[in-house]
C-alpha cells in the first residue's frame, strides 16, 4: 500500500542496540523524507553500519522502533505489545529495501544478468523473461549493458559495485541503503560508482549513504548526519554540518577527513 506523501520514508525512533555488553546505538533518531538523500558520516566504530543494518532488520534493535514507508520493520504491533515478525515476513520487507554492501556481495557463480534476475524471479515471482528485460535495462542504466554474460570475477571492483547497485534496483526498492559503497575500491574507481549514485539522487531515489566521501556528501546530500559514539551528534544541510559545524566533535572529525 502506498503511504501518504507526508509519511517519512524512514522514521527511526530512540533506537538502542548493544553487542553483548558494548552499547553501539544509544538512542538514535533519524527521519528521511521521500526522495531525499541522507549521508551518514562519523568515525570508525561510531555505529553507522549498525544503524543501517537495523533499518532492514539485519540487526534487531534492543529498544526503540523503525518504520519504513509506514511499516514497522521486523515487528507487528498488537495492542501495546510488539511481536517479532516471522522470517518470511521480514524477508518480504527486506525485498523493498535495497542494500549495497562495501564488498559488493555478488553471487560469484552467477553471471551479471543472473545476479540481477535471481531475486525478482524467486522473491517477487516475476516471469523470467520480464525480469531479464528489466535487468538489461538496469545494466544499461549503470553503463554495463555489454557485461550481461560475464562473471563477477571478470569485472573491476567499480564495475562489480555498479552491478550490485543494479541488482538492488531490480527489486524496485522504495529505499536504498549504501554501506561505504566505495571504500573497498581503488581510488580511480570511486568516481564511477559515485556517479551512479548521483544519477539515482537526481531521479528522486530515497537513499541513506554511509560514506567517508565528504565531497559527495556536500554535492548530493539533502541531509548530513554526523554520528559519534552511538549517537547522532549533529544533522542538517551539508553547508551547515560540513562548513559551520556547531559541535566540537563534528569539527574534530572533519578536521581529520577534510
Ligand atoms: N556483530 C557484531 N558483534 C559484535 N560487535 C559488533 C558487531 N557489529 C559491530 N560491532 C561493534 O560495534 C561497534 C560499531 O560498529 P559499526 O560497524 O556500526 O561502526 P561504523 O561506524 O560503521 O564503523 P566503520 O566506519 O569502521 O565501518 C564497533 O565497536 C564494532 O566492533
TrEMBL record:
Q: Does the keyword Kinase apply?
A: no
Q: Which reaction does it catalyse?
A: a polar amino acid(out) + ATP + H2O = a polar amino acid(in) + ADP + phosphate + H(+)
Report the SMART domains cross-referenced here: AAA
Q: Where in the cell is it found?
A: Cell membrane
Membrane-protein topology:
Peripheral membrane protein
| GO (cellular component) term, any one | plasma membrane
Supply the CDD domains for this chain: ABC_HisP_GlnQ (cd03262)
Question: Where is it predominantly found?
Answer: membrane
Q: What is its EC number?
A: 7.4.2.1
User: ABC transporter domain location, by residue?
Assistant: 10-254
Any idea which UniProt keywords this protein has?
A: Amino-acid transport, ATP-binding, Cell membrane, Membrane, Nucleotide-binding, Transport
User: One GO molecular-function annotation for this sequence?
Assistant: ATP hydrolysis activity
Q: What's this protein's family per the entry?
A: Belongs to the ABC transporter superfamily.
What name goes with this protein? ABC-type polar-amino-acid transporter
Amino acid at each position: 500500500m502506498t503511504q501518504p506523501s507526508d509519511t517519512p520514508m524512514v522514521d527511526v525512533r530512540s533506537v538502542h542496540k548493544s553487542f553483548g555488553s558494548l552499547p553501539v546505538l544509544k538512542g538514535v533518531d533519524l527521519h528521511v523524507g521521500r526522495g531525499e538523500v541522507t549521508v551518514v558520516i562519523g568515525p570508525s566504530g561510531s555505529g553507522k553500519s549498525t544503524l543501517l543494518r537495523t533499518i532492514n532488520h539485519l540487526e534487531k534493535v534492543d529498544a526503540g522502533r523503525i518504520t519504513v514507508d509506514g511499516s514497522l520493520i521486523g515487528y507487528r504491533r498488537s495492542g501495546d505489545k510488539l511481536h517479532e515478525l516471522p522470517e518470511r515476513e521480514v524477508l518480504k520487507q527486506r525485498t523493498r529495501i535495497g542494500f549495497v554492501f562495501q564488498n559488493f556481495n555478488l553471487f560469484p557463480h552467477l553471471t551479471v544478468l543472473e545476479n540481477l534476475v535471481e531475486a525478482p524471479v524467486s522473491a517477487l515471482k516475476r516471469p523470467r523473461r520480464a525480469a531479464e528485460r528489466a535487468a538489461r535495462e538496469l545494466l544499461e542504466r549503470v553503463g554495463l549493458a555489454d557485461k550481461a554474460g560475464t562473471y563477477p570475477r571478470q569485472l573491476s571492483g567499480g564495475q562489480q559495485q555498479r552491478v550490485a547497485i543494479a541488482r538492488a534496483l531490480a527489486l524496485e526498492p522504495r529505499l536504498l541503503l549504501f554501506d561505504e559503497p566505495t571504500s573497498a575500491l581503488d581510488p580511480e574507481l570511486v568516481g564511477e560508482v559515485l556517479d551512479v549514485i548521483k544519477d539515482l539522487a537526481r531521479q528522486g531515489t530515497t537513499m541513506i549513504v554511509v560514506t567517508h566521501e565528504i565531497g559527495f556528501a556536500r554535492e548530493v546530500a539533502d541531509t548530513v548526519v554526523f554520528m559519534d559514539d552511538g549517537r547522532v551528534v549533529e544533522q542538517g544541510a551539508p553547508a551547515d554540518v560540513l562548513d559551520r559545524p556547531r559541535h566540537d566533535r563534528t569539527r574534530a572529525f572533519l578536521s581529520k577527513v577534510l
